[in-house]
Amino acid sequence: MAKITLDNLAHSYLPNPTGEADYALKELNHDWEDGAAYALLGSSGCGKSTLLNIISGLLNPSQGRILFDGQDVTDAPTAERNIAQVFQFPVVYDTMTVRDNLAFPLRNRGRDEAYVAERVQDVARMIGMEAELDRKARGLTADAKQKISLGRGMVRKDVNALLFDEPLTVIDPHMKWELRTQLKSLHHEFGHTMIYVTHDQTEALTFADKVVVMYDGRVVQIGTPEELFERPEHTFVGYFIGSPGMNVIPARVDGRQAYVNGSSLDLGQGYGPLEGKVEIGVRPEFARLSDSEGLPVNIRRVEDVGRHKIVRADFFGNDINIIAGEGEEIGADKTRVVFDPAHINVYANDWRVQGEAA
Questions:
Q1: Can you give 52-100 as a three-state secondary structure string?
Q2: How far apart are the C-alpha atoms of 343 and 242, rounded to whole Å?
C-alpha cells in the first residue's frame, strides 16, 4: 500500500502544447491517501484513463511528478511500481486454466505453491469461479474472463495500489453489483489503495470513500458522496451526480436574494457582488410544489418511478425537475414551486460561491 502524490501533474498528447486547451489533463496537485478507495468519475474524454495510466506508468506525463510514499516514480516502469491494473476489456491467458491465470502473478514472484493454492481458492470464491478453476480460459464468456482479470488484480496482498479502468463494462448488471460488493469487502479486509475509473455514478458512489469528479481534463471536486450531493463545487458535479441532476437556473444575486425573471427568492445566506455568468443550483429533492407560495411553474408531465414522482416543469423558460412523494397528489392547483433556502447553491462562472450567514 502507498500514499500516491501527484505533484504539478499535467499531460498533453500534442508534442508542443501552447496553452491550457492543448492539455488532456490540466495541472493537478493531490495526495491519494494510503489505504483509501477512490473513484475517478466523469464522462468519456474527461481525462480519467489518462490520469490512471500516468499513475500506473503506462504513460509519461508532459509535466510534473508521481510519488509513491515520497519516492519519485515518474520515470519508473510499471513493473517497478508494484501495482495491479485491471482494464476495461478482459486480459487473460487463453491457453491457461482459470487456476493458472489467477496464480500467475504469485508464481511470477516466487511464492510457494501452498500459499498460491490457498490464495487462488480464496479469490476464486470471491469472484464466483470455484467451479471453473480447471477450465481453460479460451472457452469462457467475456464477463467470465473479466472476472478472471479482476481476480488476478486482487490475488496479491502486497501491491502499492489496485487500479481499475472501467472494469465492469462487460459484466452483466446482477454480477456488477456482486463484484462491486466484493471489491468493497476486499478493501475493508486488506486496506489496499484503490483507484476505480468509471463514468457510472452508481458504481462510483457505492464503491469509493472519496469520489474524484473530472470535467474537461480538470478535477472539479474531490469529496464524499454526501459532499458531492449537498455542495457541488461546480455545476458539472451538480448535473452529473444525481438522477435527475441539479437544476441550474440563470439568476441575478443581490445580497441574500436571487432574482429570476424579476421574481425573487430567499437564499438563506448573503453574497457579495458576483461577476460573469451567475446561476443558482437546486437539487430536485429540495424543491416542492405548492398551491399558494413560491414562484410560478408550469408542469409539463409527471413520471412515476415507483419510489417517488419526477415532475418535469417549465420555470421562467428553464427546464427544471421536482421530486414529489409517491403518494403526493399533483393537481391542477399546484402551480408554484418552493426551494429550500438551506440547499440553494450559488455559482459564478460554473464555480460555487461561498455565502455568508446573515
A1: HHHHHCCCCCCEEEEEECCEECCCCCHHHCCEEEECCCCCCCCCCEHHH
A2: 14
To the question of domain 247-357 being in CATH 3.50.50.60, the answer is no
pLDDT tens-digit map of 178-210: 777 777 777 777 677 889 999 888 888 888 889
pLDDT in tens, 280-332: 999 999 999 999 899 999 999 999 988 899 999 999 889 999 999 988 888 88
Does 4-240 carry CATH code 3.40.30.10? no
Strand partners, 252: 259
Which residue's C-alpha cell is 438522477?
243
pTM over 0.90: no
Q: Render 133-170 in DSSP notation, one character per residue.
A: TTSBGGGS-HHHHHHHHHHHHHS-S--SEEEEESTTTT
Is-contact 164 184, C-beta < 8 A? no
14: DSSP letter: S
